[in-house]
Amino acid sequence: MAQLNVDLVAADRKIWSGDARAVSAPAADGEIGILVNHSPLLSVLGEGTVRITGSNGEKVAVKVTGGFLSVDSNQVMLVVDDAEVLDGAGVSGH
């Protein structure tokens, strides 16, 4: 089964990296949801919460203050200005 390969990084550290089923993020023009085989995308992120559902069902929630999101060939990269882990502290995907 295909999965998303997700990297969520801030300027000073890696927040989360691993395989996921879904990602939800606060795009500048509204909430965006990413599932497997999403079309290529580049978007500016606003302030809000990034939510990741890991491949094993784990839930990760990270409050962000902005940044950008890129999606291509099931590779999701989120580069954020500042991040505060709300759920899934000390997380690192598989």
TrEMBL record:
The keyword Cytoplasm appears for this protein: no
Localization: Cell membrane
SUPFAM superfamilies assigned to the protein according to its UniProt record, in alphabetical order: Epsilon subunit of F1F0-ATP synthase N-terminal domain
ATP synthase F1 complex delta/epsilon subunit N-terminal domain residues: 4-83
Pfam families given in the database record: ATP-synt_DE_N (PF02823)
Topology within the bilayer: Peripheral membrane protein
CDD domains in UniProt: F1-ATPase_delta (cd12152)
InterPro entries for this protein: ATP_synth_F1_dsu/esu, ATP_synth_F1_dsu/esu_N, ATPsynth_dsu/esu_N
GO CC annotation: plasma membrane; proton-transporting ATP synthase complex
Protein keywords: ATP synthesis, Cell membrane, CF(1), Hydrogen ion transport, Ion transport, Membrane, Transport
Molecular function in Gene Ontology: ATP binding; proton-transporting ATP synthase activity, rotational mechanism
Family of this protein: Belongs to the ATPase epsilon chain family.
Function: Produces ATP from ADP in the presence of a proton gradient across the membrane.
Binding partners and assembly: F-type ATPases have 2 components, CF(1) - the catalytic core - and CF(0) - the membrane proton channel. CF(1) has five subunits: alpha(3), beta(3), gamma(1), delta(1), epsilon(1). CF(0) has three main subunits: a, b and c.
Record-given protein name: ATP synthase epsilon chain
